[in-house]
Design a protein that fits this description.
alpha/beta, Rossmann fold, 7-stranded parallel β-sheet, about 45% helix
Length: about 240
C-alpha cells in the first residue's frame, strides 16, 4: 500500500509515453507502465534507473484482458489507481484511398479499442472510489486538418476521441471523476527522421516542433486539476487555431 498517488500510462516504453513516466515519477507518483514489448518495458525501466514506484505490465492494450491486468497490478502494488493516461497509439498519414484493410484494423485496435477498454476498467474502479482522472492523448490535427498532411483516418478516430472525452466527462462528473484530453501537435521524438524536421517545424505557427516535456507539463496539470473536465487542450504551437 502507498500514500502516493498512482498513474497508469499506456504506450509507456518510448516517445511521449516514456516522457510521461519520467515526469510523473519526478512528481512523486507511482507509475504503472504498459507496452506490448516486455523488452521495451525492461529497457525503459533500465533507462530510468529501475526506480522504486514503477512497475511494468506487458500486453496489447487493444484487449480488455490487458486493461484488467494493468489495474489489478496497480491495486496489488499500490492500493489504487488514481489516474489513467490513454497514450498508446500511432499516427499513419497517407491519402485516404490508400489505407489498406490492415491499416484500418491496426488503427482501430490500438487508437480506439485501447482507449475504450482501459477507460471502462478505469471508470469502474474510480466510480467505486468516488474519485479519479482519465486523460486521453489525441491529436491537434483532429481539431484542424491540414492539406499538407493527409490523414483522414487518424483524424476520424482522434476526432471521435475528442468527443468521447467530452461525453465521458459529463457521464462521470457526478462521481467526482475528471475526464480530459491533450491534443499534441507534432512532437520531436526519435520517430521523426531528422531530414524531415524542417518540414515538420513549418507545420506549426510557432515554427518548431513541440517537446515531450511540454506535453508532460499539460498532462500533469490535468492530473492535478480539480475544476477542469471535458476539456481538449491543444499543445501544438498554434496548429489547431486555423489555417495560416
Amino acid at each position: 500500500m502507498s500514500t502516493r498517488r498512482t498513474v497508469a500510462i499506456t504506450g509507456a516504453s518510448s516517445g511521449i509515453g516514456l516522457g510521461l513516466v519520467k515526469a510523473f515519477l519526478a512528481s512523486g507518483f507511482n507509475v504503472i507502465g504498459n507496452a506490448r514489448s516486455e523488452v521495451g518495458l525492461a529497457e525503459a525501466s533500465a533507462a530510468l534507473g529501475n526506480p522504486q514506484g514503477f512497475i511494468g505490465v506487458t500486453g496489447d492494450i487493444a484487449t480488455p484482458q490487458t486493461a484488467e491486468r494493468i489495474f489489478q497490478a496497480g491495486i496489488e502494488a499500490f492500493g489504487q489507481v488514481d489516474v489513467l493516461i490513454n497514450n498508446a497509439g500511432f499516427f499513419l498519414p497517407k491519402p485516404f484511398v490508400e489505407y489498406s484493410p490492415e491499416d484500418i484494423e491496426n488503427l482501430l485496435q490500438t487508437n480506439l479499442k485501447g482507449v475504450i477498454y482501459a477507460s471502462q476498467v478505469a471508470a469502474a474502479h474510480m466510480i467505486g472510489r468516488k474519485q479519479g482522472r482519465i486523460i486521453n492523448i489525441t491529436a491537434a490535427i483532429a481539431l484542424q486538418p491540414n492539406l499538407a498532411v493527409p490523414a483522414a483516418l487518424p483524424v476520424l478516430i482522434k476526432g471521435g476521441l475528442n468527443q468521447f472525452t467530452r461525453a465521458l466527462a459529463l457521464e462521470l462528473s457526478p462521481h467526482n471523476i475528471q475526464v480530459n484530453a491533450v491534443a499534441p501537435g507534432i512532437i520531436e521524438t526519435p520517430m521523426h527522421d531528422p531530414a524531415t524536421h524542417g518540414f515538420l517545424n513549418g507545420l506549426q505557427p510557432a515554427g518548431r516542433m513541440g517537446q515531450v516535456s511540454e506535453i508532460a507539463d499539460a498532462v500533469l496539470y490535468l492530473a492535478n486539476a480539480h475544476f477542469t473536465t471535458g476539456v481538449v487542450l491543444p499543445v501544438d504551437g498554434g496548429m489547431s487555431a486555423g489555417k495560416w
